Amino acid sequence: MSQAPRSPSLSAADVFDAVGARYEEVFADVPGQLAAVAWLTGCLPPAARVLDVGSGTGRPAAETLARAGHAVTGIDVSAEMVRLARERVPTASFEQADVRTYRAPEGGFDAVCAFFPLLVMDQPEVERSLRRMASWVAPGGAFAMATVPGDVRGLDIVWMGHRVTVSSLATEDQLRVLREAGLETVHHHTALYRPHGPDAEPEPHLYVHARRPS
């Protein structure tokens, strides 16, 4: 991601509608994400209810979890991403929804995963969204997330050719919010990842695996 001068930025829905299937190509085979999905798959009971926040094209998270026999619901702000996900993963359910306003079903989910959905929003919204997602994890359930960490608010960048305004929280604040929301972190690490493509720049990725006590 490269920094850009101040200018009007696209919303998350607009930018991901425009990016579409290219996202799956540029961010293919992210080791930390694949490991997080494998961790979820290994710790869930049969036919678990899973929510994939920011489900994108449905790959790899929703596809892998649905193939493992779980009941996967994916939400994404982008209508184009939802369309692609429905084509790619017909055994899961996808809907256009915003994590900031989504209403989870009573009882929540056995697992919630969120791979990079919280960056194109304001910093207070990042914290509130983390708390909301944590609250959807049922007792004994699991949570896996990834983001680009940093104490950043309202930074204008160019990302995949589009101007967006991004925010995030430092690693210690991400973990604090999840802890205060009742989740116990069982693993976290930061890894440098270089997206595919000639103009791609390496970016740090924070991965967190957590559980809600039974």
From TrEMBL:
MF terms in GO: methyltransferase activity
Transmembrane segments: none
Protein origin, superkingdom: Bacteria
Record domain Methyltransferase: where: 50-141
InterPro entries named among the record's database cross-references: Methyltransf_25, SAM-dependent_MTases_sf
UniProt xrefs under Pfam families: Methyltransf_25 (PF13649)
Keywords: Methyltransferase, Transferase
GO biological process: methylation
Protein name: Class I SAM-dependent methyltransferase
Species lineage: Bacteria, Bacillati, Actinomycetota, Actinomycetes, Kitasatosporales
